[in-house]
Amino acid sequence: xxxxxxxxxxxxxxxxxxxxxxxFGHFVMARxxxxxxxxxxxxxxxxxxxxxxxSDKGDYxxxxxxxxxxxxxRLKGEHDMDTKKxxxxxxxxxxxxxxxxxxxxMNLFTAFLLLTFLAAVGMPRLIENQFTVASDxxxxxxxxxxxxxxxxxxAGEAGLQLRDELISIGEAGNPQQIGGEDTFPALxxxxxxxxxxxQYRRGEELxxxxxxxxxxxxxxxxxxxxxxxxxxxxxPIELQMRRSTWSSPxxxxxxxxxxxxxxLKGIGGALGNxxxxxxxxxxxxxxxxxxxxFLLKDGSLLGYKFMLMIxxxxxxxxxxxxxxxxxxxxxxxxxxxxxxxAIKRPLTPKIEERxxxxxxxALMILFVLITIVDVKRFF
Length: 379
Description:
There is one protein chain. By secondary structure, the chain is α+β, with helices and mostly antiparallel strands. It is 49% helix and 23% strand. It has helices at 3-32, 93-121, 154-158, 184-190, 216-222, 248-275, 279-284, 289-300, 304-323, 330-342, 349-378, and strands at 37-53, 60-75, 123-124, 137-149, 165-171, 174-177, 195-202, 205-212, 234-244.
């Protein structure tokens, strides 16, 4: 099996596992606080396989379901006003808080473990000024990839593609190593108008493209138009793997803080566009299952470290989203519960279902809009 396909399959399984881990947090915390679990399901119904599990803390159904989109936990008496022993509603407020936040904690802990591991073995640099402890960090690997190919350019005509790793450029028999994205423009300008060999790696295969770069005159003339051109017609991106030792957990914690800030800014921007009615722009700032699939697909082509980095970021994002006061999600359920406690009004099943039902419907509408945008973006 092709390594990229193998990593893609692993990535998809890990993505599903993130939701299962989230629900497992609810499962464990509920049972520790005397709330009975009626069902722990992997995937969503219809049910494919079911087994009754007997336990001192209450029997429950363990199910494997047809739709592989994560998992769920069904608690006994999930309404806030249920009063029977063993129900969620009858649990003390502190126990309810623990149960509702347990999934967030599990996803946060998973992200921390993955980021700590990556910091120790080699963490991809995804953003500028990515958090690190400078005194305990070194660049373990560095490569220059093709990040953009201009249609009809020398590189495009020679067959170079996105994610090809650039090795060297120069006259036949006299290659010049490409040390980084900052040195690449100077090299292409040095050989402007000349015929050169560009050596690159695609997957495990080493290739050489023979092409003639655009001249200095052609490039300068293009700058006066609305379609400026480069000598070769590609935009390189430099990928770095940074490795730490004793500071790996510190790097992981710092990155969680940094990515949390960026995620909240992104969510704020998306909500702002939704409020003003710009649904297309809002959809471009977030991704649904289609976007996540292509993100994992691209990451799988860059190796297991990029794949794990993507999974870590998704796990963190799940924690953040479920911590926010969004109706139908964990944070929303907690917010509503605490709000009704604060105003000293009973949270009846009818009110609870209306609030979270409306929130769920809104999330489904948003889900459809994001999926439409993702399909347009990737197909």
